[in-house]
Prior knowledge:
By secondary structure, this protein is mainly β. It has strands at 15-18, 21-24, 59-60, 66-68, 71-74, 80-84, 90-97, 103-112, 118-123, 129-135, 146-155, 158-166, 174-183, 194-197, 216-217, 227-244, 256-261, 269-274, 279-296, 306-307, 309-313. Strand 5 (71-74) and strand 6 (80-84) form a beta hairpin.
Amino acid sequence: MGEGYTKELVVDWSGTADSNGIVVEIEGGFTPRERILPERPTGSPDRPTVGKIDPCIYVEATSYSEKAGVSECMGIGQDWYVTGHQDDNYILFENADFGENGAAVFAAKIASNAEGAQIEVVLDGVGGTIIGTLDVPKTSYTTEWQLVSIPVEKAVGERTLVFRFKNILEGCYVNLHTFRFVVDDGRLDRSKWVVSANANSGDAHLAINDNLETRWCTKAPQSAGNQFIIDLGAVQTFNTIVLDAGKSRNDYPRGYRIHVSENGVDYPIGIAWGAGEVITTITFAPQTARFIRITQTGSDEKFFWSIHEVNVFYH
Ligand SMILES: [Ca+2]
């Protein structure tokens, strides 16, 4: 403010001023402001929208490159998702790169208010080849996401990927939150897995989230008896486990022993043991079981035990 310049500010207000501060009383009705929604995401942090998408990591349904009929919604405090309202609504993703190994399992987080609706998984254009049809379950509310997976005809290389909504009754909807395919290199589908640990169990899911940057760790120097447990969700056959310590290169397991179980209570069968490394590949004779328990048999004075990603294979 310049020298010699003053201006009187007159405030007309109603309220009280005391030792608690100033309380201003406002008269009149409440006029709700228009709800301001965050900007629609244009892609996941790992993947730009323009160019190739990697359908073998979770992809947000709203990151499509073309749509017909669908709308986009967001639950309060939640993520955006796509809603199909009637038959032949679709979303299309250009340049979905399934890679050389390809993918043979499709998984999606979906919700619907009616039985009977379906999502057709189509390659090479809206009128292209149907490689699988997902039956959509009825859920209790619009964002009660269910993870559903189905086998699909193997998709290889760079393709145009389309989801066509089908058999939606009038007034009903199908909500699609995210989707992914599972690489067809013998790895088991992790969609239904539940993982836990006897140390820092709350972070166990970070070992199966498709993100090599995040991890489960013991949050304390690794010691004999630390356990990481995988519930495959159903009895399956497998013969290889790969533990990836990612950038936590000093946190590989100094020693491990693998047990499997059908009920998650009794682990009668020890199937493999040894010393770990940054990427620990454990192979054994084919096992058919539902639960896998990985027990730390070594210890370190300083370093945690970390798993950035764990996968199980049947080759
Ligand atoms: Ca991770």
